[in-house]
Amino acid sequence: MISGKTTLIAHIGYPTESFKAPMIYNPWFDKKGIDAVVVPMGVKPEDYAAFLPLLFRMSNIRGALVTMPHKVTTMSLVHETTPTARIAGACNAVLLRADGTLLGDQFDGAGFVRGVERKGRSFRGARVLVSGSGGVGCAIAASIAAAGAAHLSLFDLNTASVEGLAERLRAHYPQLTVSTGSNDPAGYDVVVNATPLGMKEGDPLPFDVERIAPTTFVGEVVMKTEYTPLLKAAMARGCQVQVGTDMLFEMIPAYLEFFGFGTATAEELRESATLKY
């Protein structure tokens, strides 16, 4: 039950229809007796820079979850960012600190990597292809590099974005081989769709699935449906896969700690969640 004492966590993005976080956080808060609530807030890109500072003028807000298309823009709207966010070039969490300043952090990549590794697939020494260099793609690439990948191939139609990510990765991980310009999935141990392709019916697949080997692990960030067309096609080829919400469940414990609400395991969160597709 929301009251005048309830602490708010904004969930900001556009559009909001595919948001899953409220159906994970809010049942968890209820189960634990925590007087807090995650509230979806649809904000168009042209309004976001003006909206965010005003949001944090509220007296009952603790922080914000930030999703597409605002993760990169958020970097310039907070007072301080963590090293993880700076490497990723994007942040998906904002904390209002006691002195009124905003701290931006990034948990997408950690959530994705933890989910894959919990399924028995290691990134150490691996060849990985990541398609998409927006906020989530940059974060995933940064965390994969930190997990010990040997070769990271990046693809995005936005050349400036993908080359900027490649430069940051080379600067922070000189031992890592980084290439750009191709989304051919042949020859990789792991391929990742970090684009919005799959959110809309009729979207083309982000990869030529016929070029994906059955031994390749295929990861997805789209959460519109549990098994996207990409994952269904990959599974038909015998690939092991990770659904988009796995990344979400694995990163939420880090979010809870960031916002000062304790912690949880992914399994505990799944038990209380009321996810619907």
Automatic annotation (TrEMBL):
One of its GO terms (molecular function) is shikimate 3-dehydrogenase (NADP+) activity. GO terms for biological process: aromatic amino acid family biosynthetic process; chorismate biosynthetic process; shikimate metabolic process. Keywords: Amino-acid biosynthesis, Aromatic amino acid biosynthesis, Oxidoreductase. Pathway: Metabolic intermediate biosynthesis; chorismate biosynthesis; chorismate from D-erythrose 4-phosphate and phosphoenolpyruvate: step 4/7. GO terms for cellular component: cytosol. Residues 12-94 form the Shikimate dehydrogenase substrate binding N-terminal domain. The keyword Amino-acid biosynthesis applies. It comes from Pseudacidovorax intermedius. InterPro entries: Aminoacid_DH-like_N_sf, NAD(P)-bd_dom_sf, Shikimate_DH-bd_N, Shikimate_DH_fam. This is Shikimate dehydrogenase. The lineage of its organism: Bacteria, Pseudomonadati, Pseudomonadota, Betaproteobacteria, Burkholderiales.
